Amino acid sequence: MKDKILGNLNDPGQLERMYRSNKMQFKREFLAVYPDLKGSPLADYWHERLSYESDEINWGSGRELLMVLLAALVGGLIAKLPAILSINEEFFYSRNIGFIIFPLLTAYFAWKNKMSMGKIALVAGVSIAGLVFINSLPDVNKSDTTVLSCIHLLLVLWSLLGFAFVGENRNNSDARLGFLKYNGDLVVITTLIVIAGIILSGITIGLFTIIGYDIREFYFMNIVIFGLPAVPILGTYLTQTNPQLVGKVSPVIARIFSPLVLFMLTVYLVAMIFSGKDPYNDREFLLVFNALLIGVMAIIFFSVAESSRSAKSNLEIWVLTLLSVMTIIVNSIALSAILFRIAEWGITPNRMAVLGSNVLILANLLWVTIRLFRVVSKKAGINEVGKTIAYFLPVYFIWTVIVTFVFPLIFGFK
């Protein structure tokens, strides 16, 4: 769409038609190219129009709202399938929890972005293949490959959601960063909805208890389970139709948490030296260490995605740079611990999966850190860091596909 915007800059009617066909994508693409268009009366007009934030909540078109309500209904029915069809809950939810939400959100963006039938068929084919494959794995009590496949299938479905989100702009780094920003905004709005839901549930259960009815089990099994899938669907709809709701909250959170995480990580590494614990001989400690690594990396990526959309002070860039350096140290420790355990006790599915993930993360972090140092030295812009992250996302997708579909076959479903 970016090329179409530039090509029709002198055609107000065509720009209006493009805007009405997909308002969110048009806004995202136009604001990305606006810095190069400043001074043009029409471009300035569209910038003011798109930057205007109404105090009213926009509920979108009736057709879009109907689709969201249908998606919420379908999600609730899928979540209730174990009760409806007498399926083992542990088996169903451990393998299919991703299919309760991700395909519905993917379908929403595919419809909204008017994806071609070929791409829709590709997304649907991969989703169906994942559904059939994960439910065909042997039902054994202890299978590391099955657990890994279940976990990484969530990431495969998340990647398909990103594919639908960027639509026809899959090679556009701004669109990919927009997907990361969407995830951050969704976390914020979903958390608020969940808090409101908890308050409502507490009041409802309390009121019924007062008049002698204990509805806790009924409420959880029929209201909570059915309603939970609607939360991210509603959150997505709100963030897409009202970006101003959390548009200013997410950057603030990124700015606050980046220096706090940097401080925490520094203190933690120093404390680890004196604690007597290490990830080389303590498996549980290594797992926590890797969870910490993934969490900090997510904060870096989200912060960069936010930074790429606005000018940042040198202090903020330095915080991100130092945080990246500290995360590389954490990653290097974790990677050396994994290699040590493989050398001592051999290769297992878990060790191989963690090894591959840490190698990819380290490569990505090194690339990001180099770019950040170039930004600090005024040799590049912050948008170059965002492009580095955006270009690496497909690599993570390929790895998750390998772990999900290939690992169980290589390791004999162990």
UniProtKB/TrEMBL annotation:
The chain crosses the membrane at residues 65-85, 92-111, 117-134, 146-166, 186-211, 218-240, 252-274, 286-305, 317-340, 352-370, 390-413. This is DUF4153 domain-containing protein. Keywords: Membrane, Transmembrane, Transmembrane helix.
